[in-house]
Amino acid sequence: MPNTPRGEVTSVRGTDGGTPNGAADVPSFASDVAARHERVDATAWDRIVVVGDVHGCYDELLDLLDLLDPGEDDLLVFVGDLIRKGPDSRAVVELVRDSPNMRAVRGNNEQKYVDDRVACPALAPVTEYIESLPIVLSWDGAAVVHGGVDPRRPLSEQSVDGLLNARAVPPENGYDGPFWFETYRGPPRVFFGHTVLDAPVVGEWAVGLDTGCVYGGELTAYDCSVDETRSVRARETYRKRADRKILDPDGSEIDTRD
C-alpha cells in the first residue's frame, strides 16, 4: 500500500486477539477479526468521507470524486464491494489502491473473489491488493465494515462472515428483516454497505451507504466532518435487481436515531 502524506494505517491486533495495551478506545474483536482490523488516526486528516458500494462503476466514482473534491489531507474510506457487476472493476481497484488518501475494507464480493468462488480474470493484476483488504477499519468512535454487526452479541463475538454479510436478524430472514441496524445501539458508530437501500440510512449508531449505483441508483458518500451525505446518479443500469431486494428505509419505518 502506498505511503500516506498524513496518516498511517496500522494493524491493532493485541496479544490476546483484542486491543493492544494502552489502546482502550480501540474496539476489541475476536482474534480472527482482530488480525484483519486496521486503525487510522482521524486527527491526521482534515476530514474523513465514507463511500458506499462501487461495484465496478468507475465513471460514477469519478463523478462522485468531482463532487466531493477531496484534498490530499482528506481520507476516503470505502465500505467494500469495489468489484463485480459493474463495467470496470479493475479501474476502480487501481484507483483506490494507488491513491494515498483512499482505503477500503473487504466486501463479500472481494471475499468471493479471494475464495475463487467467482472468476474475474481482469482482476489478476490487483489480486494481491484485494487479498490485503482488512475486514474492519476503525478510528475513534467509528468502525467501517461491509455487512454490519449482530446487535445480539458484543464486538468480541462478531465473526468474519457476519461482518461481511450481516443484514437481517436472524440472518436467514434476508431482505424480510428485521435488520441489524434497526436495533444496534453501539458504540462504535458503524458505517456499512451490502444492504441495497433506496436512500441512505443515517443514524446515531449506523450509517448505510449502498444506494444501488450498479442497479441504476446512486453512489453515495458520507462526510463525517459535516454529518451529511453526497450522491451522484448512476449513468445507466448495469444490473437488474428485484424491487424487494432494494430496501426503502422510509417504507420500512427504520429509525436508528435514539
Characteristic key phrases:
single chain; 258 residues; alpha/beta; Purple Acid Phosphatase, chain A, domain 2; seven-stranded mixed beta sheet; five-stranded mixed beta sheet; 7 helices; globular; disordered N terminus; disordered C terminus; Calcineurin-like_PHP; Metallophosphoesterase; Ap4A_hydrolase
What can you tell me about this protein's structure?
Helix content is 19%, strand content 19%. A hairpin with a 4-residue loop joins strand 11 and strand 12. The longest helix is centred in the N-terminal third of the chain and has 11 residues, at 58-68. The chain has helices at residues 31-34, 58-68, 89-98, 108-114, 127-132, 160-165, 180-183, and strands at residues 9-11, 37-40, 47-51, 74-78, 102-104, 136-139, 142-144, 189-192, 201-202, 206-208, 218-223, 228-233. The chain has 7 helices and 12 strands. It is globular, with a radius of gyration of 17 Å. It has a domain at 41-147 and 187-245: Metallo-dependent phosphatases (Purple Acid Phosphatase, chain A, domain 2). With 258 residues, it is α/β, with parallel strands linked by helices. The model is unreliable at 1-5, 11-24 and 251-258 (pLDDT under 50). The strands form 2 sheets. Strands 1-2-6-7-8-10-9 form a 7-stranded mixed beta sheet, with no helix packed on it. InterPro entries: Ap4A_hydrolase (IPR050126), Calcineurin-like_PHP (IPR004843), Metallo-depent_PP-like (IPR029052). This is Metallophosphoesterase. Residues 47-198 form the Calcineurin-like phosphoesterase domain. It comes from Halomarina halobia. Residues 1-27 are annotated as: Disordered.
